[in-house]
Specification:
299 residues; mainly alpha; 14 helices; globular
């Protein structure tokens, strides 16, 4: 039996009608043609989330203009691209270190033996994804052709990791033998007794941010249900409210994780780029990302 599809409560609105709605709610529009072009290219309902801090329910605060929304939207777009660039460095670093430490013990094709992993269901799920990627990319990747067609060998792990996403390598790490997880964590500079759990948690957090950035999702004023695992010192750098609660639900906490996972010079460059962005678009208040006022000195 076919399901019953309900029509949306809100019907189609033209760009002119969308702009009229915004103006009726108190939003000042200085250049209507530019505003219409922006709405057409970026979707009225998509940009609405970027205006939440500029209004009380549906009514915009006084002196708020359309350019304010554009500024927040543009800032968020640029910030996502900055983060993506540096999360990629973390991803490549994890893949390289993991492949080195694993093959050091089990050899180039040891990853094909499921006895070296602690969760067979998750292992199979990851390997199925890798196999699918290998089939899809075989005709387009010279290194795959070399191993599969020329050498007729199993693709070694140090090459296979390039077929994996950050989520895949994080999952593979989390189900590997403790000795391997420990070696990888130490290469990242983690020396506490819980270092493998800590690194695994951090990589999952980076996966969350990476996926949001890659799919163009809003980071501005976003509250995260899965909060980053921070040290006591790092928590002391977060916004603290009068009731004693700290804000570990915004993006800022994840930036501290990036600081620990990146090489120091890479993190410094990332910080410099975020500072430059905040100076280029000063309208955006960094508190909506959870940044404390002294973030430039603290980070």
């Amino acid at each position: 039996m076919l399901g019953v599809f309900l029509m949306p409560d809100k019907g189609f609105k033209t760009i002119d009608e969308q702009l009229a709605i915004l103006k009726s709610r108190g939003l000042t529009v200085y250049n209507e043609e530019k505003a219409k072009s922006f709405l057409l290219q970026n979707n009225y309902y998509r940009i609405s989330g970027y205006s939440l801090t500029l209004r009380d329910h549906d009514q915009f605060f006084s002196k708020v203009c359309f350019q304010n929304i554009v500024d927040i939207y543009s800032f968020d777009h640029e910030l996502r691209h900055i983060l993506l660039k540096y999360i990629e460095k973390i991803e490549v670093k994890m893949k390289s270190i993991y492949a080195y430490r694993f093959t050091e013990i089990h050899g180039p094709a040891g990853y094909l033996d499921n006895s070296y992993f602690t969760d067979l269901k998750q292992y199979q799920k990851t390997m199925d994804k890798v196999k699918d990627q290998k089939v899809r990319r075989l005709e387009h990747e010279a290194y795959l052709k070399h191993f599969v067609k020329d050498l007729k060998q199993d693709v070694p792990l140090w090459a296979v990791v390039d077929l994996m996403t950050i989520a895949d390598i994080s999952q593979l790490y989390s189900i590997s033998e403790e000795s391997i997880r420990d070696s990888v964590a130490k290469d990242f500079g983690f020396t506490t007794k819980d270092n493998t759990l800590l690194l695994g948690s951090m990589m999952k957090s980076m996966t969350i941010i990476r996926n949001l950035c890659a799919h163009g999702s809003r980071l501005f004023n976003r509250l995260f249900e899965q909060r980053p695992w921070l040290s006591k010192k790092e928590k002391g750098c977060l916004i603290k409210y009068q009731n004693g609660m700290i804000d570990n639900s915004h993006l800022y906490g994840f930036i501290f994780l990036a600081r620990r996972l990146l090489e120091s010079e890479d993190f410094l460059q990332m910080k410099t780029e975020i500072i430059r962005l905040s100076e280029d678009i000063p309208f955006v208040d960094m508190k909506h990302y959870g940044f404390r006022k002294d973030w430039k000195e603290v980070l």
